[in-house]
Amino acid sequence: MNIGILISGRGSNLEAILKANKEGKIKSNIKVVISNKEHARGLKIANDYGVKAVYINPSDFSDREEFDKRLIQELEKYSVDLVVLAGYMRILSDVFIEKFEGRLLNIHPSLIPAFQGLKPQKKAVEYGVMYSGCTVHFVTKELDNGPIIIQAVVPVLPDDTEDTLEKRILKYEHRIYPQAIKWFEDGRISLNGRKVYVKDAVYGTLPTNPKLEDF
Ligand code: GRF
For 104-123, what is each residue's pLDDT tens digit? Predict the structure, then answer.
């Protein structure tokens, strides 16, 4: 399977995925990393791992759709089967989502459907929830609301700030995302409406459901 990864920034999830790939836990070919930000740290990480890193400048395009068509073209160059959003901070147009629906994944640092959109960790702290976490889900046209593959739950502590909660959640992001990708490449994920089922996974566990196997 060929994978393309879209990023906009720091690239810590990208790094976790590249590391899992290097260690042979994820077996697919990660063909290309594309950023809409020229100075995204993730581009450097991709280079360090010897993966093709491409910057595409949104201001070279008249609108979102034209930009996304260029993205599609780049991904098609590498016959990408799965597109992974890893901190990609741009809304995708319907053209893009329709093209890759069912093979387009995202990670969001909350237990969706809570705290969708921007700054979910800040929203969780301000709301006063006792638990938050992260979610790997399929991308649909509704923002941060597609079918859920795996979630990890972490406690929110009385003196947490956006920053401390972010760090606690991030550790799990780096485990559940590579795991979900591995399940996908192994053909274990099936979708029935909104519901995702991972074949032979162990359900009913904490802090992740289903249970992590490899990460
Ligand atoms: C992560 O918290 C991810 O869940 C969200 O954006 C952040 C990206 O971080 N979608 P990084 O670029 O992977 O370090």
Answer: 999 999 999 999 999 999 99
